[in-house]
Design brief:
2 copies of one chain form a homodimer. The first copy, chain A, is of the alpha+beta class and 93 residues long. Chain A is 43% helix and 23% strand.
Amino acid sequence: MNERLTQAQIDQALASLSGWSQQGNAIVRTFTLRSFPAALAFAAAVGHLAERADHHPDILIQYKRVTLTLSTHSAGGLTVKDFALAREIDAIA
Amino acid sequence: MNERLTQAQIDQALASLSGWSQQGNAIVRTFTLRSFPAALAFAAAVGHLAERADHHPDILIQYKRVTLTLSTHSAGGLTVKDFALAREIDAIA
């Protein structure tokens, strides 16, 4: 679970997702909600998934936009945990 | 309410606060909470104040840390609205 993925594995995992892009050692996606309260609620829902997975993305709320940055700091890069959480997030977006 | 403050006014307002610093056209403070759920709850509480004030800071949650960036985009700089919201936030921190 905590093993860094190779770039080939990252490319393959990214190809199976939509809206996420790689930025260095992280994957990033920005969601645009319909209002600031909706953005807050989405951030809270992401937080719930993150706490359950014990894997905590950076969450940036800018009015209606929520930008999530996922990386596995303990592994120094991207792992399957990042892509698993990205899929869980996409399922509630 | 929507008039840009002068640098002298900004300096005076900052001197009356603790923990906030100026970064360009914004004031910024990072709060460290005791856990990720506590950070989420704090972000939600800030969001409630922001919505009531119709003034929306950038809210960045990084595990236990919440960084707030306040600026009045419509004025192109800092206004009394930023410092009023900063004081409200400090009161719940």
